[in-house]
Design a protein that fits this description.
It is built from 8 helices and 5 strands. It folds into 2 domains: 91 residues, Periplasmic binding protein-like II (D-Maltodextrin-Binding Protein, domain 2, 3-Layer(aba) Sandwich); 103 residues. The longest helix has 31 residues. The strands form 2 sheets. The protein has a 3-stranded parallel beta sheet with strand order 4-1-5. A two-stranded antiparallel sheet has the order 2-3. 44% of the residues lie in helices and 9% in strands. It is mainly alpha-helical.
Amino acid sequence: QKVTDLQSCYLNVAVWNTPPYFSYLKRVDGYYEISYFEAELLEVLSDKLNFSLNLQEPPNNEQRGKVLSDGTITGAMKMLHDHTADLSLGSFRYTLERSNLLTAALPYYQTYQVYGILTTTQLYTSLEILLYPYDKLTWICLFLSVQLSFIITFIIDYFYGKSLLIQIAIGSPRIRTPSMNIIRLFMGQPLIQIPEPHFSRFIIIFWHLYGLLLRTAYQSLLFQLLKLNLYHEP
């Protein structure tokens, strides 16, 4: 009968803020407010056994505490061991360390643990690593854009001596290796011969920025692959 009715005696309870199990927050008026399902469990237990709550927080934010290598106990475990707290709750789970030191209650909350195990792994080949940063559609668009630039360059070079408009747009003297210049600009290399007209320089700057964006994205994605050591999906 003494255990079932504690005559509104105060029990020291070691608690801390550990949502979603137990919320222990200070209100504007200075009082602490508890909530979540472990707080409801504590309040129901207080009503059933007729005791009052004296909430205490473990010092130095040690929360549950642990047993150090030299045998020193910290946190709520120390408070229970030294009888400065009568009970404690806040997402406690069964461990060998705690069972050797404290008396636990019956489990009142359980969750399923789901583990994903990678049974087989396959590393990327050298070619797959080089092609990894972009998907198939991006590589196709990149290939078509380079081929289109080669075709336009060939047409301009072929009609250079026959069209005055092309000579004005490209400038003089005639560019000797236009196809090689496309590759050099795309790979970020400087040009040996820079045309004088503004239109030609605008095209060069545009193509250079296009290559810069693609190179930067490619290098960053390739670095991510090499850093994280990704695998094929099993």
